[in-house]
TrEMBL record:
Protein species of origin: Elysia chlorotica
Bias-annotated ranges (Basic and acidic residues): 460-503
The protein's name in its UniProt record: Uncharacterized protein
Chain residue ranges for the region called Disordered: 447-503
């Protein structure tokens, strides 16, 4: 957490002061006394909770003493001076457009926020801001501190990371339409109209809220209204043109769901007996405030809400009952919506600021809202006095309450309720920070910011010379920054060029290597193609020779006799029969070769049929040889089949991918044939170029492995 310079300087100066040394010495003695009474030897032997308890008791013992008063006075004066010194330096060096008082307030806000971020438990110190609208950055931090629930936020973020669909309600479209309708129909929501960021933030938060409940019904209308203040507080982080960032939506979900789970019963107002009792007690408080401070308004409400047949004479008790009954009808919608839609955004956030910072004080929220409701009715008395029935009162409230200002509420609260409510807030904080109200502060007011010493008078020429020197120094510093920036950019440019050159060299060498490999593979492919062509040519010649011989045999010469048993063919057939076993074949270690009986060609088998069988057998052997050459044998055939299948699948994937690249989608059957010839040629060329490129890339990757 970064702290402003004036706060760090104040800390350093205070810790070196004699007032701080005296306070620490007395605090040490008070703690040592507690250790002795508790029979504890060392402070480090205590647990963290016990250490904190001992520190609180020791501080409480020193409270109100001279040492504590001197220290607080010293702290106040040091912070006054350090803050003023920083603002004065800022006015002298930066020439800001803001006034000194604006800069003082901004610097003080920065210091407060840095300490609250470092020590969130100090959020109760914000009670000193009671009856004041919080500054925008302080408001964001304060609401988050009081409505923080890390578990809710973690559940939402984890759900988004695991399954974002579960974070969206099945009725997301209906929720979007109702949000848009609410923004357009409510007159006080005019600042939200047309803002995409605010719309998306409300819709996303409500959609998750509905999905989390796991109900089939629609969300209540009140839930739509109650998300508006949280979106208003997050406005600095929302764009009117772009959807809300996920981080902002997660923060809104955390704060909104935490608020919804901590609402008192009279705001939930579900109709249960417990909630009805809370509503009755709440309205009774409003009635008491009206009777005490706004008597005419109480009488006006009683008069308009008394039934016609009972407008005769009423006792004091009966009059109070009528007032409570009439207030219940008026207050119930305002309480359920927390005045959203009744007040303008500025006044609404002021009311909610006080409600939020009183969350840690039991009963304060109820007292505060009762005061606000009664004050609202009292401020609108002039607008309500001419109403004749409850409907006219409600119409007047809806039409005139948006015109009420923060200052009107502040004045009424300060006049009638400040002392009581502030005492409730600070009942257990007697050692709280000095309050903002000067009338209640026990320490001297800060004076440096308006009581600073006036600079000595200087002549115009001296001021001009000093100004020129400052401008020259500023220009020199700017020139140094520009030169440093230029040198940095030149260095980066040189580095980028060197890196680009290296990349180009590597790419060129890689392309050369790929080209060499491609050429070598093409040469191998050409050699293989030539060998296969030669083999096919020779086989074709053999087939032609055999075909000619077959044709010659098919034409028997006239006058030839049928071949006899003693012809040349029969003799060749007999000679091809294996001979009978010889004595050498009778060796015991060798298996006997069975003798096949001698056979002679059938006398009916003519030379033409024999030639056809010989040719058919030769062709069959050639086909089997070609099959073995093309498809392999055994394990080689399996490997070749696998590689062929893989190649076919790769080609199919390449074709589908090329279709996506060229057409943007996969072609349907008949779509390519429906194109004209020119389009088909262009698409085919583009697809083949892509497929060839991908093949070369794969070949290059495989060769590097």
């Amino acid at each position: 957490h970064g702290y402003p310079k004036w706060l760090i300087g104040s800390k350093d100066e205070i810790t070196k002061s004699k007032e701080w040394t005296s306070f620490v010495h007395e605090l040490h003695e008070a703690i040592q006394q507690q250790l002795t009474e508790s029979h504890v030897q060392y402070f480090t032997d205590l647990s963290e909770a016990e250490k904190e308890l001992f520190m609180q008791r020791a501080t409480k013992a020193l409270e109100g003493g001279s040492t504590t008063k001197n220290l607080f006075s010293r702290v106040s004066s040091v912070m006054d001076r350090q803050l003023n010194d920083q603002v004065s330096k800022q006015l002298l060096d930066d020439y800001p457009t803001d006034t000194r008082s604006d800069l003082i307030v901004e610097a003080a806000e920065e210091g407060v926020m840095s300490m609250l971020k470092r020590w969130p438990d100090m959020k109760s110190k914000l009670h000193v801001c009671f009856n004041q609208p919080l500054a925008e950055p302080v408001r964001q931090l304060a609401w988050h501190l009081y409505l923080s629930d890390p578990k809710v936020r973690k559940d939402y973020v984890d759900l988004l990371n695991q399954n974002p669909r579960l974070a969206i309600s099945p009725q997301d479209l209906d929720i979007s339409q109702r949000v848009e309708q609410m923004v357009l129909s409510e007159s006080t929501f005019s600042d939200l109209k047309g803002s995409i960021g605010h719309f998306y933030a409300m819709k996303a938060t409500l959609s998750y809220h509905h999905a989390r409940q796991q109900i089939k019904g629609r969300l209540p209308d009140i839930d739509y209204f109650l998300v508006v203040p949280f979106v208003l507080v997050a406005s600095p982080s929302l764009s009117r043109r772009d959807p809300a960032p996920g981080k902002v939506v997660a923060l809104l979900v955390e704060e909104y769901l935490t608020y919804m789970s901590t609402r008192p019963g009279y705001i939930v107002d579900s109709g249960s007996q417990l909630h009805n009792e809370e509503m009755k007690g709440f309205v009774d408080k409003i009635a008491s405030i009206l009777e005490k401070h706004y008597g005419p308004t109480a009488s006006l409400i009683s008069r308009n809400f008394v039934p016609a047949r009972e407008k005769i004479v009423a006792t004091e008790k009966g009059s109070r009952a009528v007032l409570v009954e009439g207030l219940t009808d008026l207050v119930r919608p305002m309480a359920r919506t927390m005045l959203i839609g009744y007040l303008n955004f500025e006044t609404l956030l002021y009311v909610w600021d006080q409600y939020i910072i009183g969350q840690d004080v039991p009963g304060f929220s109820t007292e505060w809202l009762a005061v606000v409701m009664a004050t609202l009715l009292g401020l609108l008395h002039d607008k309500l006095k001419n109403c004749q029935n409850p409907q006219e009162i409600e119409t007047a409230l809806n039409g005139n309450s948006p015109s009420l200002t923060v200052q009107q509420f502040q004045y009424q609260v300060k006049r009638y309720h400040y002392r009581e409510l502030y005492a409730m807030l600070t009942s257990d904080q007697k050692a709280a920070l000095p309050v903002l109200d000067p009338t209640q502060s026990v320490h001297p007011s800060w004076r440096h910011w308006y009581n600073d010493q006036i600079p000595p008078y200087t002549k115009p020429q001296d001021r001009r010379k000093a100004r020129e020197e400052r401008e020259a120094e500023r220009e020199r510093l700017l020139q140094q920054q520009r030169d440093a920036e230029r040198l940095r950019k030149e260095g980066e440019s040189r580095e980028r060029k060197a890196e680009h050159g290296e990349v180009m060299k590597l790419a060129a060498s890689e392309r050369a290597r790929l080209d060499q490999e491609r050429i070598a593979l093409e040469d191998l492919l050409d050699d293989e193609r030539r060998r296969r062509l030669d083999a096919e040519r020779k086989a074709q010649e053999e087939i032609e020779n055999l075909r000619r011989e077959l044709d010659a045999l098919k034409k028997p010469q006239p006058g030839t006799r049928p071949p006899s048993t003693f012809s040349f063919s029969s003799y060749i057939s007999r000679m091809l029969i294996p001979p009978p076993p010889s004595p050498a074949s009778q060796v015991a270690s060798l298996a006997a070769i069975p003798e096949s009986p001698a056979r002679t060609p059938a006398p009916t088998l003519n030379p033409q049929v024999q030639a056809e069988e010989v040719v058919l057998d030769f062709l069959t052997r050639i086909r089997r040889s070609m099959d073995k050459i093309a498809s392999g044998e055994g394990e080689d055939a399996k490997v070749l089949d696998a590689e062929t299948s893989k190649f076919i699948q790769t080609n199919v994937q390449d074709i589908k991918r090329a279709q996506m690249e060229v057409f943007g989608h996969r072609l349907q059957p008949g779509e390519f044939e429906a194109m004209d010839a020119m389009r088909q040629k262009q698409a085919s060329d583009q697809m083949m170029a892509l497929i060839q490129k991908w093949r070369e890339d794969r070949r290059a990757r495989d060769s590097r492995r």
